[in-house]
Q: What sequence folds into this?
C-alpha cells in the first residue's frame, strides 16, 4: 500500500485524533508513572524493589510465566499440527475451545480452577495443594495465554508446501526427522512470535492469578498482586516502582515482537523473491 502524506483538512483531523488518542491513553499514563516513581529519587525505588517480598513476587512471576510459556509452546505446536494436518469429528468444537481464553473473564477462569482443583473439587489432588499455591498460579497463567502459539503457528504451518515433506518420506526419513529438518525451520518464526505473546500475557495476568492464588504475601503474591496490595496499603512508591518495572519489561517484550515481525516479513519476502 502506498503511503500518503496528510494534506487535506480531513486527513489532518484524523491524524490529530489518532495522536490525541495515543497520547491520552498511552503516553500520559506512562509519563505519569515515570514521574511519580522518580520524584523522590532512585533510592526509594531501589529499596522497594530489593525488599524480600518484592523479590519473591518477581521471582514467582517470571518463573511461573516461563513455565506457562514452555507448556503452551509444546502443546501449542502439537495442537496447531493436529488442527492443520488432521481432520476429525469435533474439530470445529476444538478450534472454538482454543479461543476460549480470549473471551473468558480471567476472574471466572480463576474461580473455575478453584471449583476444579480446590478442596472437594472434581480434580482435587490428594498429595499437594493447587489452589492458593504456586501450581494454581501456573495453571492460571497457562490458561490465559493458551491460544497464542497455536494461533501463530497454525497459519504458517497451513501455508507450507508438503511436497518437500513427501519427498523426505520417499527417501526414508522418519516423521520426526522430517519435522525437525524441514517443518520446524519454516514454522520457527511463528513459534517465536507466539512465545513472545504468551510471555507478555502471562507476565501481566492479574484476575485469574488473584483468585486462584489468593495473593498471600511472601508465598503466592505475584508482581501484579503486589501493585494491587501496595495501592490498598497507600504504598504509592511501591506501586509505582513495580508498575514502572513491569512497564519496562512490557516495552522490551514489545520491541522483541516488532523485531520478530520484521524478521518474519523479511523472510517471507525472501522466499517470494527466491521463488520468483
A:
Amino acid at each position: 500500500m502506498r503511503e500518503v502524506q496528510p494534506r487535506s483538512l480531513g486527513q489532518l483531523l484524523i491524524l490529530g485524533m489518532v495522536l490525541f488518542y495515543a497520547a491520552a491513553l498511552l503516553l500520559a499514563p506512562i509519563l505519569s508513572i515515570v514521574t511519580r516513581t522518580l520524584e523522590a529519587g532512585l533510592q526509594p525505588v531501589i529499596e522497594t524493589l530489593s525488599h524480600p517480598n518484592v523479590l519473591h513476587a518477581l521471582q514467582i512471576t517470571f518463573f511461573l510465566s516461563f513455565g506457562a510459556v514452555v507448556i503452551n509452546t509444546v502443546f501449542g505446536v502439537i495442537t496447531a499440527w493436529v488442527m492443520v494436518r488432521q481432520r476429525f469429528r469435533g474439530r470445529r468444537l476444538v478450534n472454538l475451545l482454543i479461543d476460549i481464553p480470549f473471551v473468558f473473564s480471567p476472574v471466572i477462569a480463576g474461580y473455575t480452577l478453584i471449583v476444579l482443583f480446590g478442596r472437594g473439587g472434581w480434580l482435587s489432588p490428594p498429595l499437594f495443594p493447587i489452589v492458593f499455591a504456586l501450581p494454581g498460579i501456573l495453571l492460571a497463567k497457562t490458561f490465559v495465554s493458551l491460544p497464542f502459539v497455536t494461533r501463530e503457528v497454525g497459519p504458517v504451518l497451513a501455508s507450507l508446501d508438503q511436497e518437500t515433506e513427501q519427498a523426505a518420506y520417499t527417501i526414508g526419513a522418519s516423521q520426526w526427522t522430517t519435522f525437525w529438518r524441514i517443518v520446524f525451520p519454516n514454522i520457527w518464526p511463528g513459534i517465536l512470535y507466539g512465545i513472545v505473546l504468551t510471555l507478555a500475557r502471562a507476565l501481566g495476568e492479574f484476575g485469574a492469578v488473584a483468585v486462584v492464588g489468593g495473593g498471600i504475601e511472601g508465598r503466592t503474591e505475584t508482581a501484579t498482586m503486589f501493585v494491587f496490595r501496595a495501592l490498598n496499603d497507600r504504598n504509592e512508591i511501591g506501586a509505582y516502582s513495580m508498575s514502572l518495572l513491569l512497564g519496562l519489561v512490557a516495552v522490551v517484550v514489545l520491541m522483541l515482537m516488532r523485531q520478530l515481525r520484521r524478521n518474519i516479513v523479511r523472510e517471507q519476502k525472501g522466499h517470494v523473491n527466491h521463488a520468483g
Remarks:
- Residues 236-275 form the longest helix (40 residues).
